[in-house]
Amino acid sequence: MKKVFLCFMSFLLTLGVLGACGESNTSQSEARSIEEIQESGKIIIGVFSDKKPFGYVDSNGDYQGYDVYFGNRIAQDLGVEVEYVPVEAASRVEYLVSNKVDIILANFTVTEERKEKVDFTLPYMKVALGVVSPDDALITDVEQLNGKTLIVSKGTTAETYFTENYPNVNLLKFDQYSEAYNALLDGRGDALSTDNTEVLAWALENEGFSVGVESLGSIDTIAAAVQKGNDELLEWLNNEIVELGKEDFFHADYEETLAPVYGDAATPDNIVVEGGVIE
């Protein structure tokens, strides 16, 4: 009986250990304080590596783009170096929750659902959805997509919007933007939808494709994001955005990173938000 009792107690202890491990695996890792970031000498920022001209890796292996330009300034004003970590649309929240990055600057559209999981700063850009398709079969009205295949990236507002509003559109989903655009080039879908700022830039660099639907859904905002409850870093970033607005920083960012791509096809005031204030 004693041996049976000891075995039973050992079994219970094993269950307790496993339960504790399970709890720790699902818990949120604590975000770093500004002091800890500065003591480490670097800020870790999640960005896209394949979403030109907002976040991408150039031929020299360096990060470039509108979001990266902002990230460089953040690091400068904190007095630290910057380490960029590539993220995908669907992994942005997880990278903050698990504390793999301090900030996400990955063309992150603010939504009510995302606000439940991360904290967003004041906006620094505004955006809607757009649809790009081949010129010889141009989609000019979203209703033309019913029964057809639309390419989207997982975890994006485009995926959510079409899932909720257009159930008769067949969605072909990819993890990476580069995979999605390659699918459009290969003819595996009739069109592709993501932020209108991004599809416009892509169409301008890919002959034979145009943005037939220039604005779809509501006008949304793009903002930086930090781990939920990281009030110190959130306040610092909000103050940074307000102060940068006084020098028209994001217009300078536009001229440096977006204007060479857009040319006369877009105007900065339709995209840029200064000082966190939407006009």
UniProtKB/TrEMBL annotation:
It comes from Turicibacter sanguinis. The keyword Transport applies. The keyword Transport applies. GO terms for cellular component: extracellular region; outer membrane-bounded periplasmic space. PANTHER family: ABC TRANSPORTER GLUTAMINE-BINDING PROTEIN GLNH, AMINO ACID ABC TRANSPORTER PERMEASE. Keywords: Signal, Transport. GO terms for biological process: amino acid transport. Transmembrane segments: none annotated. This is Transporter substrate-binding domain-containing protein. SMART domains: PBPb (SM00062). Pfam families: SBP_bac_3 (PF00497). Residues 42-261 form the Solute-binding protein family 3/N-terminal domain. Residues 1-19 form the signal peptide. Belongs to the bacterial solute-binding protein 3 family.
